[in-house]
Specification:
This is non-reducing end alpha-L-arabinofuranosidase. This protein is an alpha+beta fold and 661 residues long. The protein folds into 3 domains: 125 residues, Golgi alpha-mannosidase II (Immunoglobulin-like, Sandwich), CATH 2.60.40; 346 residues, Alpha-Beta Barrel (TIM Barrel), CATH 3.20.20; 138 residues, Jelly Rolls, CATH 2.60.120.260. The chain is built from 11 helices and 35 strands. Strands 1, 2, 27, 28, 29, 30, 31, 32, 33, 34 and 35 form an 11-stranded mixed sheet that branches. An 8-stranded parallel sheet has the order 3-15-18-19-20-21-22-23. Helix 5 crosses helix 6 and helix 10 runs parallel beside helix 11.
């Protein structure tokens, strides 16, 4: 009996505690009248790296894999189901890769010998298949040269796994010299795993190269452009900058495999194919067919930045290969070409059309400068070798382009000897912006919301260039884009926003991942050959980026910033252009909480817009089946004079926007 009584009393106490806990109101003061500092237009941006099939097979809408037969295995991506090679009792035909050059960019082409009319087939598998949509149009182009015989037609078809034809077109080769031919296919069915089949009418020998296929419906309708749905997701973020091309892609496993921007501009067919450094980096997800065609090159990156309203932020090699791989170094006496690449890039972006590189930009279709303001030197390099090389770049860039802002790096970790050394040395150099990276647990992000509170206001500004909460551990294939990771990042972001005087740029990483071609998780946007969706992390980024405001203002409880007290995190801004006060609050508690916002020195409208992002469980995720399971919900809130009373859901991110009179 006593035991039961104690149990009843305890249960009753717990229930009352829950009720009173819910009834407790957190009172925050928002000082609208005084601006702490300006919010930089670059505060929230996007970081692009060609990892997870983000470029070829992703953002770059090319559908043919190994279109110019330049992979290390030059026939990778192609099959010959009816060739002599596979059926020795037939004589239909055969393909042979001709390597005609060892220098330059395009080294190989495919020579097809047709012995039986309509008996020989070439099939390209695409990037884990080809996504086609019913009634959509697809533009095929190829280079061909008739070597001998009477091949009169090249037939091109979409087929599915059962070889059912899902669209057809043809090209008539007429010339013995290299000639470009084009045609168009209309898909008769939606199919995520289509392939392209090429057959021939007549017999003879025909040379083929640059076999290319793009949807007609690309971003802004640009010929051979970018995948529309993926760019739209980027555009909807309203990013302040686009950092490109990486990431470790910049460094390369070796210096020979580093990203060289000059090889990625000019005529697409003349851009050199390079093995992607992520192709076999991780044993858990080897992708030996992962290469870079550079159809998405530096010109396209600058154009994309312009399209989505983002400032371009290119990162260049500093003469150090990835220190997690070879760590190969360019000797200091041989560093000049690397430095010249940086100077020439600034000329390519900003130079007058009369300059050598400005002329190339103009000839590619953009006479107007791209208004480049930032450039990054190195990615995640560390130690004295990096500092020594950074000094050379800084001196040369500032001598010729003093207004360009240079981004330096602090290594791959957010603390430790490498990090401390870099910050110490870069501060001595009066570095302008230091790039910090952190891939940590959700708990780390919540505990480090005060990370920048103690940073020197007179020291280098900060670029949080790569960050993401890891649900398991860094580089684990089991990491998920779950809700706990997302709201923990939101808690951390309030800390970055509160310290906008120090933190000038931030970006989640990585940006994109193919459902079947990924190497690294988690990632902000997932896609397959037909669809794409934003993760909860994406919507957190969108909430902050779309509501960054122009001026930081204070939000406090009893005079202190809200940095996790009672599991709440908050920041506040005002926008002098839209005349709004914007408050962001993250509730990381497993129960709802009440918050009273008292606005000081402000005349506000009586109603505000309330945007809520929440998940029911810590492990909740978005998916192709439920792409907006966790996505913003908008409602209206009526103020009580100068107060706003909020009921914050458990595990939620809330944004309140109120117009100023």
């Amino acid at each position: 009996m006593k035991s039961k009584l104690i149990t009843k009393i305890t249960l009753c106490g717990l229930l009352l505690s829950g009720v009173y806990g819910m009834a407790q109101t957190n009172t925050f003061e928002v000082e609208v009248g005084k601006s702490v500092t300006k919010i930089q237009p670059t505060m929230y941006g996007v970081f692009f790296e060609d990892i997870n099939f983000a470029a070829d097979g992703g953002l770059y809408a090319e559908m043919i894999k190994n279109r110019s037969f330049e992979f290390e295995l030059p026939f990778m991506g192609w099959q010959e189901p009816n060739s002599d090679r596979h059926k020795l009792n037939t004589n239909s035909g055969i393909a042979k890769i001709i390597k005609y050059a060892t220098e330059g960019t395009n080294h190989s082409y495919c020579r097809v010998t047709i012995n039986e009319p309509k008996g020989y087939e070439l099939i390209n598998e695409g990037f884990r298949g080809m996504g086609i949509k019913k009634d959509a149009r697809y533009n095929i182009s190829l280079n061909a040269a008739k070597e001998s015989g009477n091949i009169s037609k090249i037939k091109i078809q979409f087929i599915d796994k059962n070889n059912t034809v899902l669209g057809e077109s043809s090209i008539t080769p007429t010339a013995s010299n290299w000639t470009n031919y084009t045609s168009q296919l209309i898909a008769t069915k939606t199919e995520a795993k289509a392939r392209i089949k090429i057959t021939f009418e007549g017999t003879g020998v025909l040379d083929l190269d640059m076999i290319s296929l793009f949807p007609e419906d690309t971003w802004k309708g640009r010929k051979n452009g970018m995948r529309k749905d993926l760019v739209q997701l980027l555009y909807d973020l309203k990013p302040g900058f686009l950092r490109f091309p990486g990431g470790c892609i910049v460094e390369g496993r070796t210096l020979a495999q580093r990203y060289q921007w000059k090889k990625t501009v000019g005529e697409v067919a003349k851009r050199e194919t390079l093995i992607n450094r992520w192709n076999t980096e991780f044993a858990h997800k080897p992708t030996p067919d992962y290469f870079q065609s550079f159809g998405l090159g530096f010109y396209e990156y600058f154009l994309l930045s312009e399209d989505i309203g983002a400032a371009p932020l290119p990162i260049l090699s500093c003469g150090m290969a990835c220190q997690f791989n070879t760590g190969e170094l360019v000797p200091m006496e041989k560093l000049d070409p690397y430095v010249q690449d940086a100077l020439d890039l600034i000329e390519f972006a900003n130079g007058d059309v009369t300059t050598p590189w400005g002329k190339i930009r103009s000839e590619m279709g953009h006479p107007k400068p791209f208004n480049l303001k930032h450039i990054g030197v190195g990615n995640e390099q560390w130690g004295p070798d990096y500092i020594e090389r950074f000094k050379v770049f800084e001196k040369a860039i500032k001598a010729k382009y003093p207004s360009i802002i240079i981004v330096s790096g602090s290594g791959p970790f957010p603390e430790g000897d490498y990090f401390d050394y870099a910050h110490s040395e870069l501060k001595k150099l009066n570095a302008e912006i230091v790039d910090e990276h952190y891939y940590k647990s959700p708990e780390w992000f919540r505990k480090n919301a005060t990370r920048y509170d103690s940073y020197d206001r007179k020291g280098p500004k900060i670029f949080a260039g790569e960050y993401a909460a890891q649900s398991v551990e860094i580089a684990s294939p089991d990491n998920k884009n779950n809700w706990e990771c997302a709201f923990s990042e939101a808690a951390f972001i309030t800390g970055m926003e509160r310290n906008a005087e120090v933190v000038h740029l931030t970006s989640y990483a990585p940006l994109l991942a193919h459902e079947e071609g990924w190497q690294w998780t988690p990632d902000m946007i997932w896609f397959n050959n037909l669809e794409s969706f934003g993760t909860p992390n994406y919507y957190v980024q969108q909430l902050f980026s779309n509501n960054k405001g122009t001026d930081l203002i204070t939000i406090t409880e009893k005079g202190k910033a809200i940095t996790g007290q009672n599991d709440l995190f908050a920041s506040a801004v005002k926008d002098v252009n839209t005349k709004e006060v914007i408050v962001k609050i993250v509730n990381t508690k497993d129960t709802p909480q009440k918050v009273n916002l008292n606005f000081k020195n402000a005349k506000l409208e009586s109603k505000g817009e309330l945007i809520t992002l929440k998940g029911d469980q810590l492990n909740d995720e978005n998916s192709f089946a439920t792409p907006k399971k966790i996505s913003p919900i908008t409602s209206m809130l009526t103020l009580n004079g100068t107060d706003a009373n909020l009921n914050l859901a458990a595990y939620s991110v809330t944004v309140l926007k109120i117009k100023m009179k």
